[in-house]
User: What shape does this take?
Amino acid sequence: MAFSAVSPMAIPISSRSTIASKEVLEGTQGAHIIISQLNSFRSITKLKLNNNQLGDDGVSALFTYLKSPPASRHRSSISEIHLNYNGIGCRGLRDIADYLNDSEVALKTLWLANNTIEPDTDVLAWFATSVNRSRLEFLSLTGNHKLGDAVVEIFFRHLRAPYLRELHINTMGITARCASALAKWISSGHTGGAYSLHTLKCNGNNLGIKGVCEVIHAIETGNWSLMNVEVYANQIAGIDFPNDNSPIQQSGPLPSYELQESWKDAEHALRRVLHRRNAYWRRQVELEALSLLKYSRTLILRSKASLSSANEHPMSDLTSKSFPFYNLPMELRLYILAVLTPSLSCAQRTRIYDYAADFSSLPQLLPRLRRDIGHGCVADPSRALGASVGFTLYSSGGCAEGKCMGTGNSLVCRRDAERTKFLEAVGCRAYEPECTT
Assistant: This one.
């Protein structure tokens, strides 16, 4: 039985702190092999256990260990778990849901493709609830054919995950019968189920042209967060066309040449709403949110000493005399700031104001005493920085612009990571249309 756990001394970087199986692991015995490897390492970030035969027994044993006190260090370090092709059913899924429900779990990526999960209402509802409470950003349920329409009718009905960015539901046998429910979930607004989702892959199902067009129409009318949607190979031929609410204004089966043209129209409509509308407004919202934070820090956040002095001696406040803006009522100050950000909703501006006025959200002024690569930027070796390849840049505000390898998408830049963290904290990763009712 061959099994590998790549140590920190190994190269490349992407393989460090990863446990991966080289031969088939079966049931509880296979789980114990994984557990022994986990016990021998202080920190593991990835579990790549695809194409095994762990089944419900092995998954139960593995996640029972991960929930135990001896595995507490792994709960905060494991960010990816790959369990494709493992014969996992509802019992194993429940154990995974119990693990996700733990507040210590830092898991962000979960692959559960091509397993044998069945449409159990209680298990799917509990799994959705656990995903909602977790920090999961990526989930794949691709190839779980037994789920079929239940993934929409049960799982999506309970799914309101604030951190979920990408969802794969390819080749699951989803039919046109649940297309309306899928469209409703997609268009449920910025407080609904898909409000945080950026990527949805629904290829190889049986939605038909009607279901595909309902999905496209739902994105057009009620979803501003999706940037990438795939609905290829969905049994387009031979299915009736949708009603007047869809992009394609016909009913009844069409000849192949007309079907091809109609699919091109639908694909063009999808590309237009994703790339031209949603992507454009996302950029606008992010830029305005960052700009509003800068001005809000200056005009709203003031030290406790200056506020106390202003309350005791309002006429002697030097800041108010030099800058009369501080003499205005707070409501008027916020109204003036709102003029700078026409693309943001009132709720988004309010969250930014609250964030800007919170002293605890200010960046650290002093450098960290303990310097580790997780809190620094790796310098770009292509630039003349006078240092060895891969040395770490440290500063209180991140690297100098363009000096870090993250700017070339090879590593994550600390500055970009902090910006993303702020945008997520204030809910400014997508456009939020104001409610008119």
Observations:
- DSSP finds 14 helices and eleven strands in the chain.
